[in-house]
Write a structure and sequence with these properties.
Chain A is an alpha+beta fold. Chain A is built from 15 helices and 16 strands. Chain A folds into 3 domains: 299 residues, no CATH class; 120 residues, no CATH class; 58 residues, Orthogonal Bundle (Arc Repressor Mutant, subunit A). Chain A is elongated. The two termini of chain B are 20 Å apart. The chains are: A alpha+beta, B alpha/beta.
Chain lengths: 498, 493
């Protein structure tokens, strides 16, 4: 795959992309009020006097939200500003009771950082790429207008109003929809690793403003448009695709791109103008006089740093170096919190059960976790009860396989029964006859009979036709109804055939 | 029925505590005086039942031998900028007419907890914007004072004009005020009473309708320095609900009162000698120096070089904050909503705010919006903030040379209602001496000093170091003792 360029009538165009990701901070209470942040409550059930901007109400910063923003900054290796401040962004709208959003324009809490996109040829990322992050600031979310409740009136739900958001602003460093998609996925992964945002895009916990411009390679940046509130990775990529092509067509048709805010229409996959720069708001930012500057102490910063878990890049490197996993497996396992958590739990359990070091078992456990187990679960669909698949049961299966007591196929069969019934793997293997026969006597008897019945083939083999070895293995396994330990079969056959 | 209306806070508290009279008798007496003084228009709503209920509680507590609070048995007026649970709270604006909060401001809660009762909600300049109490939607407040030989209605000052009028006319022994740029001190001076604005952050702003958040500060207005000390103790205190609240214990100001100023230095700033200041004011300032010297203080000359820039800076910063603070009055959730037939959201905002806000409020919202606008922000708002820092630094330098500063409170005595309405700039000049201490967040007090030749009160202002309310109160006490200000307005209402 080559570099992402748009082929226009006048030549090739490069796309320049910057993203502003709004991530809802994981915290029990809102940024400046004690109201709950839980998703899905009845409209206006989670609104304090402060959120409703009653006369004389004052904001008090929620220290947990500040801590989460700092931890996020540390996770992207950013500069943490020990001095930051809240500003008011003034505008009128019915979902904004105060008439201003408390945000951070002049002194954000987190400064420059970066995020590494891993090489992923299949995903359109040819080589590892570092995307700069300009800043992270903390701000209040607005409420929600509901236009479908009354024929002529709009209703307002303030549950979300005042919930803490982190606005994570990238530099204009991305050059393709694939890079933007990978950036959002990687950012989401990091946020979920550190537990500062649940990354749930359907519930609106994460959404992106997508800045797109086009230019002839090597020229100055073009005029950008900003498409607001895009709420899935796929849509982010669609917006870029559409916007870049629209801009190229526009310019090549003799027009000019105007700096404006646009909206994404999911149904058509296109964007349309919301407002242009001329009628853009004058937000009249100024420092919020109700709030003191945020000054961070060294102790607090140390505590934040100490609380960070192992992050995706470090974990991936450790999986490759210490556990000897393939780069593919390491990347797959570390992409999501749930995936690595399941893997690490199973690996620990398996090491304990089998009595071998984790590094020795990492590859079979990784294969099991990434491919075998999901395959079985998928194949039986609704009949699978995943809660039956405890780490202990999976480790028991892996132990039997490691000891050569069961084959790979038998492991799958046993796991299928575990998923359907919750029975114990050892018991299943015994009672269902799902064990390999390693009893050399039984295997020898079978082999003797096969060799006697096929003396011609034995002669041919001994005459140099090596390929026939497979035939004998097959015949033996057939005679043993597939339950013979292949290693034992191989050994005996070799001995007997000389 | 005995008349208790000449009694102040300390007299009432001590009399109730000693059993000389009951809190109920006191409350009834003031309730009657309030009802009798409707023509002053000092109250927007009266709450005699609240005053009685609080008094009965105090009497019952006393009978039960319980410890009584700092304000036990004292009925007070509450400026209608403080949210009071279930009692209409308007900021004297049509836009909040009929609004009854589901919450109680921290300051009023503190006062009720200390045993005070509420006579009613006091009139004020709309959203505390004004210096004459003529911008209230609920009508002008009359001062009880009149010029000798004239029946012209006089201004009680503003914005806490209902408070000053009520306390001066003895229909309340004390009242709360708020001071953004002189709104406690100037009306106190006009009405011949005391009023102190404490250090910014002493009194919680939680539940006080905001005008300019970085300047707004509540304080007591009463007829003596002692009464102010008692009431301020009850009002002040750290409040975790206000991020700008001071995390400091409340000193025992009443117990610490002393008029002995030996070893203290009183600063006189040459920059406060301004053009347009009345001769009578300058004379009382000179007199004040003598009194403080007599109390043992040394008088020293100081310089506050940026004084002349303070008022212009104030009239940028305060409107800027106000333009944002008042955005919440939009007709969506509470208060007035003007929704013309077929109107959309923007039309509703425009109609509601046009109908709900008075002219002075609109003027300040427009000024504030302008100075924060793109392209003007640096030239106005940022510049004003720099000036504010310089004004504060002037004071910091001054504290190396003196402990407290003596200045006039206002450049003139009270003026007739209606006389300055066409001239907002002259009106703004009323606060020229008050504003510097507001910008610097310093404690400052006005105490009555004298009457003009035509019988109107004049006040002297004391400005102290941060957190040194005690020094301000003590200097105030020294003046009070020597001024012997006993004049009271003749009852005409």
């Amino acid at each position: 795959m080559s570099k992402y360029l748009i082929q226009g009538a006048t030549g090739e165009w490069e796309v320049v992309i910057g993203l502003e990701v709004h991530a809802q901070v994981t915290s029990n209470a809102k940024l400046f009020s004690g109201a709950s942040t839980e998703f899905g409550a009845e409209p206006n059930a989670q609104v304090s006097l402060i959120d409703a901007a009653m006369p004389g109400m004052l904001p008090v910063p929620n220290a947990e939200c500040i801590r989460q923003a700092v931890r996020t900054g540390m996770a992207i290796e950013a500069q943490i500003n020990k001095y930051s401040r809240f500003d008011r962004k003034n505008y009128f709208y019915a979902d904004l009771p105060q008439g201003y959003q408390i945000s951070q324009l002049y002194h954000p809490i987190v400064g420059e950082g970066q995020l590494v996109l891993d090489a992923d040829e299949k995903g359109g990322i040819l080589e590892e790429k570092v995307i700069g992050i300009e800043r992270i600031h903390v701000e209040q979310d607005a409420g929600k207008l509901m236009h479908d409740q009354h024929p002529t009136m709009s209703y307002v739900d303030l549950n979300r109003c005042g919930v803490a958001l982190m606005e994570i602003v990238s530099k204009p460093d991305m050059r393709s929809p694939a890079e933007a998609g990978a950036y959002v996925r990687k950012l989401r992964s990091i946020l979920r690793y550190v537990g500062t945002c649940d990354g749930n895009m359907e519930e609106g916990s994460m959404r992106a403003d997508v800045n797109v411009s086009v230019r002839k390679p090597g020229e100055e940046f073009g005029t950008r448009t900003e498409t607001k509130n895009v709420n899935s990775v796929r849509f982010v990529m669609q917006v870029i695709e559409h916007e870049a092509n629209r801009q190229v067509d526009l310019i090549e048709g003799g027009g000019t791109v105007v700096q404006e805010t646009r909206l994404f229409d999911v149904a058509s996959g296109t964007t349309r103008s919301m407002r242009s720069k001329e009628d853009a708001h004058d937000y009249r930012y100024f420092p919020d006089p109700d709030l003191l500057p945020v000054e961070l102490e060294d102790d607090f910063l140390e505590e934040c740093r100490a609380s960070l878990p192992e992050l995706p890049d470090a974990k991936r490197a450790r999986y490759e170096i210490e556990l000897g996993l393939t780069p593919y497996n390491a990347r797959e396992l570390t992409a999501e919190v749930e995936t690595f958590a399941r893997f690490e739990t199973l690996l620990t359990e398996a090491a304990g059960t089998i009595g071998k070091p984790e590094a020795k078992l990492a590859t079979p456990v990784a294969n099991w976790a990434l491919s075998v187990a999901p395959g079985v679960i998928k194949s039986i669909g609704d009949e699978a009860s995943v809660e039956h698949a405890t780490a202990a049961r999976q480790a028991a299966i892996l132990k039997m396989q490691d000891a050569g007591e069961i084959s790979g196929g038998q492991a799958k069969e046993i796991f299928e029964i575990v998923l359907k019934t919750g029975r114990e793997p050892d018991e299943i293997a015994d009672s269902e006859g799902l064990k390999q026969v390693s009893d050399t006597g039984a295997i020898e008897t079978a082999i003797d009979e096969i060799l006697a019945n096929n003396s011609d083939k034995v002669e041919e083999y001994r005459g140099g036709k090596d390929k026939l070895f497979g035939f004998f293995v097959g015949q033996t396994m057939k005679a043993m109804q597939g339950k013979a330990n292949p290693a034992v079969v191989n050994q005996i056959l070799k001995d007997k055939l000389g | 029925m005995a008349d208790f209306t000449d009694l102040g806070v300390k007299d009432i508290r001590d009399g109730v505590a000693s059993g000389e009279f009951t809190a109920r008798e006191v409350a009834e007496s003031f309730n009657a005086a309030v009802a009798d003084a409707a023509v002053l228009n000092a109250f927007i709503v009266t709450t005699p039942e609240h005053a009685l209920a609080a008094a009965e509680k105090v009497d019952a507590d006393r009978a039960a031998g319980k410890q009584l609070g700092k304000m036990a048995g004292v009925p007070i007026g509450m400026k209608d900028l403080f949210a009071t649970h279930g009692v209409q709270t308007t900021a004297a604006s049509h836009i909040l007419e009929g609004f009854k909060p589901e919450y109680e401001s921290t300051v009023s809660s503190n006062l009720w907890a200390a045993g005070a009762g509420m006579l009613g909600k006091l009139n004020l300049d709309q959203f505390a914007m004004g210096s004459s109490n003529e911008t209230s939607y609920f009508g002008n407040v009359n001062s009880p004072w009149r010029k000798e030989g004239s029946n012209a209605a006089m201004s009680p000052g503003g914005s806490s004009g209902g408070s000053s009028s009520a306390v001066a006319s003895r229909i309340a022994p004390a009242a709360t005020g708020t001071d953004t740029g002189g709104s406690i001190r100037q009306p106190a001076a006009f009405a011949g009473i005391c009023g102190i604005k404490p250090t910014y952050g002493r009194c919680s702003r939680w539940g006080v309708v905001a005008f300019a958040s970085s300047l707004d500060q509540a304080g007591p207005m009463a007829r003596s320095v002692e009464d102010c000390a008692i009431m301020l103790e009850a009002m002040a205190g750290f409040d975790p609900k206000d991020s700008t609240s001071l995390q400091m214990d409340v000193p025992t100001w009443e117990a610490g009162l002393s008029a002995d100023l030996k070893g203290k230095k009183v600063g006189i700033a040459k920059e406060y000698r301004m053009d347009g200041t009345d001769e009578a004011i300058l004379k009382s300032w000179e007199q004040g120096k003598e009194w403080l010297r007599d109390a043992g203080a040394e008088i020293v000359d100081i310089s506050l070089p940026h004084t002349k820039y303070a008022l212009p800076a104030y009239y940028i910063i305060a409107p800027a904050e106000a333009s944002s603070n008042l955005a919440r009055y939009d007709g969506v959730r509470y208060g007035l909503r003007d929704l013309p037939e077929g109107a959309g959201l923007q039309d509703m905002y425009a109609a509601t705010r046009a109908a709900g806000f008075g002219d002075e409020v609109k003027r300040r919202i427009l000024i504030g919006t302008y100075v924060l606008s793109a392209g003007f922000y640096d030239a106005y708002y940022n510049q004003a903030q720099k000036v504010r820092a310089l004004v504060a630094r002037d004071f910091e330098h001054a504290w190396a040379e003196c402990d407290v500063i003596l200045a006039p409170t206002t450049p003139t005595a009270s003026f007739p209602l209606g006389s300055l309405n066409e001239d907002p700039l002259t009106m703004y000049l009323n606060d020229v001496f008050a504003v510097p201490a507001s910008l610097a967040g310093l404690p400052a007090m006005s105490v009555p000093a004298a009457l003009t030749e035509d019988g109107l009160p004049l006040g002297l202002q004391l400005v102290g170091k941060p957190f040194d309310e005690q020094g301000v109160l003590n200097a105030g006490l020294a003046i009070q003792q020597r001024a012997g200000f006993t004049a009271k307005p003749e009852k005409w209402w």
